[in-house]
Amino acid sequence: xxxxxxxxxxxxxxxxxxxxxxxxxxxxxxxxxxxxxxxxxxxxxxxxxxxxxxxxxxxxxxxxxxxxxxxxxxxxxxxxxxxxxxxxxxxxxxxxxxxxxxxxxxxxxxxxxxxxxxxxxxxxxx
Length: 126
Known about the structure:
Layout (H helix, E strand, L loop, with lengths): L6 E2 L4 E6 L2 E6 L1 H7 L2 E5 L6 E2 L4 E7 L3 E5 L4 E6 L2 H4 L3 H4 L8 E5 L11 H10 L1
Antiparallel strand pairs: 1-2, 2-3, 3-9, 4-6, 5-8, 6-7, 8-9
């Protein structure tokens, strides 16, 4: 499942752009590779994130994995539901399992991300 209205990183994060804000999460592919997510560590509102730099950590029954920001900007919202329901990352990665919202610092960075077709090709090769 690869929604066509999103952009993607090679590290399996997605970004949905709405105006000047980007909602970020991990893909269904990533959630499947991780296994059952048991903990998500996210930044606080107000923190700056840099494109392709670590912004948090997700822990599953299989592994601990870093999360990478698709775009640079300031965190304006964090999905507080993940503190008590980290399994939302597995059950609804493109919806209720979103992680952070960022005020986009440089919209040109979106051009460095994969579209749905390129991301599907990447996961098919994995």
